[in-house]
Amino acid sequence: MSENASYVPPTRSRRGCFTCRRRKKKCDEKKPVCKGCTRNKLECKWPAERMRKPGQGGSEGIDADIISLANSSAGHKALAPRSRSVFVPETEACGSTINADSSECALQETDVTRGYLDVLSPETILSPLIETETHHGSFSDASKSSTSESVSLLPIEDAGAPQNALDEPGDEQDIAQVDNFDPYISTETCMIASPNLWEALMEPMPPSPTENIPASLSILPHIDHDSSELLSFYLQKTANSMGNGSTDVNPFVVQLVPLAFQNNLVLRLILAQSAVHRQVSQDRQPSNELAERHYTDSLRLFRALVGVYLSGKHDGILPLAVGSLILSLTEVASGDIHGSTFNHIIAAKSLLKKVLPQRCVGMTLDLQNFLVEYYSHMSALSIIGMAPQIRLNSPMEPEIEAMANKMVEGKYVGQLCGCWLELLLVIPQIFALGESMKESSQDSIRPPSPDEITQYALLQARVLAFQSVPTVHPETALAGLVFKQAVLLYLWSILAGPHTMYEGNKMHHNLMKDAVIEALALLSQFPATARVNTSLCWPLAIIGCCISEETQRDIVRNRLQTMLGTMSLGNMRETLVLLEHVWTQPLEDISPWNLSKMMEEKQIWISFA
């Protein structure tokens, strides 16, 4: 009998490689690389381990960061939030759409993955956009929560594939591979990805006839009327609300919009950001349907590209890095209280450390500086709200920090960091020092170590030496000085709370009191309607923890309300909601270092970026 006659084609089973399952091809189950992957020169992945083609470089560092994030965040309550009481999502739960024994539902029930599947739902970001009972008449009361859990997985029909397109559920080993889970990639996305997905999604948009931003949208004939309106809203309002007006040139327009004209992913993310911002603003639409659709579509496209990138295709890392940052600020604009912002920030760090040092194709120096500023701003002003497990991954990458320090030396001024980029770089260092000193004081009665005292002195000297760039707009200079006082209060409150006074603490107490008075005096010198207030949620939160008089609290309260009415960014509302909770506590328990504890108690996990 000939060899061909004796050959029996391999039958489809549950134990084939992930690559063949995704491609809907039969697998001969030969390890380490099956015949199908060998023939098509594809990466062969197996349930129990992740195999790579010999000599293939790529995303090991990114894989490690995402896996570490997933493993360390299992206990982060912010990632398994409860829905707001007034929001009833139309999307049904996973169990009503697919069999409860399927791998998707089984994956949903694991502690590690539940939070990341929450992030993939448009309801997670858009639920704060529905007006709830007003607090003080002008912002939503975020303290009320429903007893029902928020939907954590989109139905299959909403995920971009028909239900019958999924593979049969794998064995228990497939479900247990939490190490292979990525916060941006759902199970169905991994299963249905086409071999040509990357080429299709990364195809450039029609080129612009000029290098400048066109007055007409005719160069984008493929986008519909709603998308055109969203792009116009982005150019007119969203881009201005994202930036603080410290420079004449807005990089949210001159850097991101041309990139969006060339790349479909960036365009979709910008449209989603515009739709979300419009729903928070006074221009909100009667229904959230359009915003939900754009957010869902853009996130589906983004996580599909992340899946392709992790499989070894690295041509489009720049749009992915930019996309992570756009998503993080979109969450901030919506008033995210679930901690979703932090996932995007950590993913951005993993991508940027690959992109920035080598200045990949298509990246100008201005764009590079803007991305460094973007990440520095988001990470420094979000670290307070991160769970302890996630904070371990949050410090600045040495390469990114070196670039930022070089920008400081060049007197960099930006639309996010104003003239205080140097202070943003100090905040994570103060945070790390404070965590270290507080852990030491809890474990034993030993005083701070010589190294801790030295680092404290160096950080204080650096902050005290900070001066605003003389050439900036007066409002930007004043905002920089407000930041300076807030950073000093943050540093000084490591030693003792701002409202703690005892024998031997009078000088420290008076020092903090004087810093509060100075900060409030600086705030009175420029209006709350000025664009630079966009960047002031973090200092206002720190100052708010250090004031005890009701008249002083009214200054902070009224400023945040005015900022919300002017800039329409959801994090301004949530910052005030959090401070209102803080101000109900006994004075001896109020401190900037207890903000994270308050977030955990009230389940309000926010970024101050």
TrEMBL record:
One of its GO terms (cellular component) is nucleus. GO terms for biological process: positive regulation of transcription by RNA polymerase II. Signal peptide: none annotated. Keywords: Nucleus. PROSITE patterns: ZN2_CY6_FUNGAL_1, ZN2_CY6_FUNGAL_2. The keyword Nucleus applies. Gene3D superfamilies: Zn(2)-C6 fungal-type DNA-binding domain. Pfam families: Fungal_trans_2, Zn_clus. Residues 16-46 form the Zn(2)-C6 fungal-type domain. SMART domains: GAL4 (SM00066). It comes from the Eukaryota. It is found in: Nucleus. The keyword Repeat does not apply. Transmembrane segments: none annotated. GO terms for molecular function: DNA-binding transcription factor activity, RNA polymerase II-specific; transcription cis-regulatory region binding; zinc ion binding. InterPro entries: Fun_TF, Zn2-C6_fun-type_DNA-bd_sf, Zn2Cys6_DnaBD. PANTHER family: FINGER DOMAIN PROTEIN, PUTATIVE (AFU_ORTHOLOGUE AFUA_1G01850)-RELATED, TRANSCRIPTIONAL ACTIVATOR PROTEIN UGA3. This is Zn(2)-C6 fungal-type domain-containing protein.
